[in-house]
Amino acid sequence: MCEMKKRIKRVVPVLMLLFIMVFTVSCGSGDGERAGTDGTKSADSVIVTMPTTSEPEAGFDPSLGWGAGEHVHEPLIQSTLLVTDDEMNLTGDLATDYGVSDDGLTWTVTIRDDVKFTDGEPLTAGDVAFTYNLCRDSSSVADFSMLKEAVATGEYTVEFHMIRPYSPWPYTMAVTGIVPEHAYGEDYGENPIGSGRYIMKQWDRGQQVIFEANPDYYGGEVKIKKVTVPFADEDAALAAAKAGQVDVAHTAPAYADSVTIDGYGIVSVESIDNRGINLPAAEPSEEDGVVYGNEFLSDVNVRRAINIGIDREKLIDETLGGHGSPAYSLCDKMPWYNDASEVSFDAEKAKELLEAAGWKKGGDGIREKDGVRAEFTLLFTPGDSVRQAIAENVASQLKDLGIEVTTESAGWDTAYDRAQSTPLVWGWGAHSPMELYNMYHTDENSDLGYARYSPYANETVDGYMDMAMAATDTDEAAELWKKAQWDGETGVTQDGDVPWVWLCNVDHLYYVRDGVDIGEQKIHPHGHGWSLLNNVDKWSIE
Fold first, then answer.
1. What are the residue ranges of helices labelled H in 65-124?
2. Measured between alpha carbons, how far is 46 from 66 in angstroms, rounded to an integer?
3. For 462-473, b where at least 16 C-beta lie within 10 A, e where not — what string?
């Protein structure tokens, strides 16, 4: 911590000057919103930093990824058919009614008849169909491969014809913004027209984006009339807050614990921004130059020992400064979470599992069995200090169990292939059960019959997920997703195959100016970005 404090003192003054120079040039100060750095501002305008990675390279176009992946948000520029509430229940935005046929192949949605795009043209079912067919043909971020065709069957009714049943479809409808067919072109992402709460007025690439309230928004009063979003790394965001130039600045645990800023408090938002490690659960093999499986980790008792042999609370305290919660699955706190996933830290039980499985300590304290050493490499991506700290903490804790872990930085250009045989610190977390499917279900493109991101296969788990996908009722699907995790006999939990060990959910931290109320934030998904603005129209300022 002392070294972090020293680094902050060295780097912040320079970054502060650069940020203020850029901010002043790009935003100006002639609108009376701010008088110097004394915090004086209007009561209906906010400036909120976002990580540089939150800037959508392809622009604010839903068909090119805006609103999906790490850009998930409530209807900001474009409206969506559905939204999720604070309890992750689905509710209507544009949609007034929706349902699915008995065979799961046709979804029918009725939309509001009082919505206009910001150019004055009405939003109709034709725009919805156009948007979804466009996403089907061009989206490289969100998955629309299950959609055969979207068809407007009336001015305010649209049908989605599916190639196969797909019960998570409502969650797709909750993140896909509707674009106007009449005004869509190649430059749409730079000049988006929507029907959401805000109009994008200005985008200075690499610097900031400015939104102004949509005066014709159908969803009620937009209290905050202007939202300015400078893109900044954590150091620059900190500098901006120290200079009093922003109302909300994203930050990291190290800063939140070591830097106090007059006029600002720290707000911590709960998330399912998960960090975990894959444990390649197959015997070693090779296909097309890629090695799959790991001789040591293919032993299920080793994986079970690791799962209960890591003290998650200790890891959170030492790597996140306590700003997180223990994770036991990919979907903690979601309606489809099976609480059978939860385990208690028990180092002695972990050692007993290893001993009973034949893994005996050698002279150097590291276990061996039949000439195989209890060791593996744990990868983390470069430039991510949190994942590196987690990797090193896991290595330290597992050494106490007699397992030797070597940490190594690996870029994403090689990490995906290497993770098929070597554990990697991953980040996941979505408001959709589809992530369970992607993580554990056999990949149809796998010649070896394994899941996508780490070699694992279980026909029973696949079966539950297939039934969940084909279900026509959300509650029924949730119960099947739970059974895929654990049905009393098999699954992916501690008493099952445990092919992944989930460690922590990272709280999202912000410096918030005194007098600015960001309201009740629902659980954030992966990505320390746009989800913060889900309720920005309802924020208040004293």
1. none
2. 22
3. bebbebbbbbbe
